[in-house]
Every structure is written in C-alpha cells, then in structure tokens.
Amino acid sequence: MSAAIRVRGRSLVDRVVQIIGMDIAAGRFSPGAQLPNEAEWCERLDVSRSVVREALRVLVSKNLIDIRARSGGRVRDPGVWNLLDPDILTWRAQGENQDAYVTELFELRRVLEPAAAGLAASRISSAQLAELTLAYDEMVAAGEDTAKFFEPDVRFHRTILGAVGNALFRALGQTVTVALDITLRLSLDAPKGQQQSLPIHRTVLDAIAAHDSQAAAAAMLALVDAAERDVAEARAEQKRPPRNVKTRAKGDRMP
User: Fold this and answer.
1) How confident is the model at residue 16, as a pLDDT?
2) How far apart are CA 59 and CA 62, in angstroms?
3) What domains appear along the chain, each with residue ranges and CATH number?
C-alpha cells in the first residue's frame, strides 16, 4: 500500500467518502473491481475501522458499490449509480473522459434551466428580483477578475432556480447547482473573458423582470449555449502547446 494519506476535516467519514468515491467515479477502480479491504483503507487513510465502515455504507447508498459477506466491497456498474447525486456529479468531473461528461452536463442544463427561467418569470418575488439584479451588478463590477465573477454568476442562476417555487424543482436544485458549478469553473479561462456573457445575462434579467416567460426561456437557452462554447474554447486553449515551444520537423536533430 502507498504511504498513509492523512484525512482531516470536520467529518472524517465525509472525507473518506470523498476520497474513495472520487477514485471510483474517476475510473481508478473499474466496474466489478474488488476494493481494498477495511484494514488496507485504515492503513492508507489513517482512520479507524468504524469510519471506513460508515463511509462504505454511504457509498452503498449511492449505488457505487455493494458489499458482500467475506468478499468486501465491489464497484457496481455505472448504469446503476445515482448519477444525479451531487457528490457523484462532482467526482465524475475528475474522470478521464471529461469532454463527453461536459457534454452531458450541458445537456442537463439545456433541458432544465430554460424551463426554470420561464417559470421564474411568472413567479419571481420582488425580493428575489432584487437579489437577481444585485448578482448581475456584481458580475459587471467584477470585470475580468474571474475569482470575483464566479460567485455572483452562480448566485444569478441559483436565484432563478429558487424563484420557480416548485418542490420537485427544489429537489433537483442541488443537482443543477453542482452542474452549474462545474461548468462555470471550466469556463473561467475562456479566451474571450467573462464580460462577453453579460449582455445575455442582461437579456435574461430583463425578460424575467418583465414577466415574459417565453423570452426568459429563450434567453436562458442562449446563455447556456454560449457557456458551452466558452468551455469548449477554454478546454481547447488548455490543450494547446505553449506558443514559445517550437515543434521540430521530422528528421531534425537535437543541437
């Protein structure tokens, strides 16, 4: 086993859940794979058996693993995972096939967020509209400071989801929020910067303020589409070789 990993935090169980869950969701343990036994996890993570057992029970509840007597834990097929679980959404972002996963996240956003914007336009309260406007104003004030831009951007979308006022929508709210968090973080390095999205955010805000459901839904769809383009451009930029590195032609010799 590798050297012990020190697990610190308010909840040891939660930290162990995060470590093991991320290893599974990111593909470091393949479906059907046998997990290390309790003693091995205890040694690696420097925690007690009771902590490991509780963490494994949490992972069972998420359908990531099953535990059988004398055989320990095994990874279940991804087809039965609770894929909308916020933890699993986050863990999968660390996997190898990130391009396909980002596409899935945007498909989820494209289905849910325009509908939420349309409903919010007809239901938003004065206080929620004031919060939405404040979030937009803070995005404008952030300029191209991505650290300052991110929080009001997330709050803008969360406020719209909260304004729907539907219990079932609220149940999906955390899932959508995690999808938002992942994709917005990925778009922060967009070559054209963040301010380019402000006119579309403004269109969403104006449509909701005018209680125009159809216009709000259309504007939100345009915003999600633009965000997906930003993420694609940011990821392409990250994969591009540094510009000061010249590629040698075939047959060239090293000096």
Assistant:
1) 94
2) 5
3) 12-80 (1.10.10.10), 97-239 (1.20.120.530)
